[in-house]
Amino acid sequence: MKRIPLITAMMLVLVLTYCQSESGGSQRSDGEAASSQLAAGSAARKAAAKAAAAGEDVTFTTSDGVVITGTLYPAGESAPAVLCLHQWRSDRTSFAAIAGKMQQAGFTVLTIDMRGYGGSTRTEAGKRIRPDRRAQKDIEAALTFLRSQPSADAGRIGIIGASYGSSNALIHAAKDKGIRALVLLSPGLNYFNELPTEAPLKQYGDRPLFAAASTEDLRSVETVEAYRRIAPGITVEMYEGAGHGTDILDAGVGLDAEIIAFLKKKL
Fold it and tell me: Which residues of the chain have pLDDT under 50?
């Protein structure tokens, strides 16, 4: 009689062990299923992002041998075209969102990494290069490339520049009469004491010009006010607490829509 409880106990242990094993297996299966669902969701998001990214990476070389990397967003044949120039310590990805919106609005867009940033860090010979505040050779090479594209109307070219990119855009456009419109985000009168812009603005003349700044960015506000005196026909948008340069595009204040509307009218 004493052996019956022992056998019963052993059977109970075996049953409990089996049940726990099955329960644990069920939990592992659920975990694996959840992991599979997460992986599938991540893959789907990546696929959707890839499908949404309608740009193609391109490279071209400047007159002094620097290999410039960019992304081209083509919008059909002979579309109005826009070159985007990022701010200091940034790269072309800062324009990716608005470039996609502009492409959908019918613009061909080229965003570039200016020398020393992103993918534009070496010469053709492989020599590493540093950022340079003067980016005129980069702009010249980018515009030559852009004007050669079947998707770009070489007679309808504009430039969007942010911070030092805006200074370089204005300096180039002053001597390139083929630039029909400029958009300047957080411009400066003389960034780094190397990029004076008042004389180039006078040289730019009465071609369409759009400038945007945020009220706390005092240097840019001062610049925009100076530009108003030189070019009374300038279009100005001022925002509060929106940051500097392309940060304003990410602040949700509607600057991207204003830029697209301006360029649709002027290019």
Answer: 1-52
